[in-house]
Amino acid sequence: MALNKVxxxxxxxxxxxxxxxxESETENTPARKVAEEFWDDCLKEVLExxxxxxxxxxxxxxxxxxxxxxYTGDASRTQFEFSFGYYAAGDVVVTIDGTVQTAATAYxxxxxxxxxxxxxTMTSAPASxxxxxxxxxxxxxxxxxxxxxxxxxxAAVALVPLDVARSAIQQxxxxxxxxxxxxxxxxxxxxxxxxxxxxxxxxxxxYTHVRSMPGTFKSALAWRMAIELALALAKKPNLARxxxxxxxxxxxxxxxxxxxxxxxxxxxxxxxxxxxxxxx
Length: 280
Prior knowledge:
It is built from five helices and 13 strands. It is α+β, with helices and mostly antiparallel strands.
């Protein structure tokens, strides 16, 4: 039977000599609690390490250079929230019925912090029926376009051109793109000079269907979990060092298997000549 998540946890426990195993994902035991605590981070780390064929997806991206939200005044409300990130106060424009409001005079801007969205506080409440609009223009950091990343994004692999056969992709020029932190610092954006209509993002996604993972991947993941369990549960740094060495070996084997299955090399993605010209 294919290993599930608990099976990988128990493999990790056995690798550090732990003899009390986990029966379910919900049991109230120290081993289960520690395994659950480190599972997501360990899985993400291993997924990030390679272009795993089983975890690849493609997606069309959305340009978010300009975003806005509107409110209807009620003559009493003065604080208006918005969820869009910005790099500088000048990226935010506030209008009432199309008239641009002056910062510091008509309103103050408060940045997002501690889970609270950014907001503007108007000096005077917009009258009933007036439309207040907050527009945020995201700085493109030297590129022409800014794109949001899919919710299940782990790591970018390539921007795949739509007008080139898959077999010919390796022969065309490479795309120029950069993944950087969003303004809020709680996620990432992709910056590039390529139009969204001409490519798809190929990426490693947050693959959580454990039973369908290749055996070599699950072995590497179990060793990665063993490192954390040796430190947090067994309290034995020497076991953690041993597990770290075994993890590197298991990861190399899993990567070699993955590359053999995909027939491709990991790295920056390709682009068509038309995209290449725009990236210079």
